[in-house]
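Appendix B. Chain record.
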Amino acid sequence: MNLILFFFPIIQKLEAIYSTASVDGKRLDPDLEETLSKSRDYIELQNAYIGWRDVTGPKMKDLYEEFVDLINQGARETGYKDGGDMWYVTTLLEFIFILFDLFSPFVMIMINWSFKFCNC
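Structure tokens predicted for this chain:
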């Protein structure tokens, strides 16, 4: 089964809910983002967060569960235990590639330096 056909419509619906929701007439971008990033008033932050969660959460819950099920199914089809296992492995590989990119110039310099003193 081609999971991609199910995956993208779910993402689109989740993004639509997330981007169009509002709390007391305030949308996430820029109103609530500004409140959450700049306010130091506990009650205002709490109202913004809980309001946003209450408006978006119930609408997104079933879609998100379906999204996670599809990710897990796709992960199992490619040999992983679940989506978390797949995420862990790919994140670890990305980290290894970053380290390789950072250290490969140093390693090449050291190899070149060592050949200068080698009687090979």
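Further analysis of this model is presented in Appendix C.
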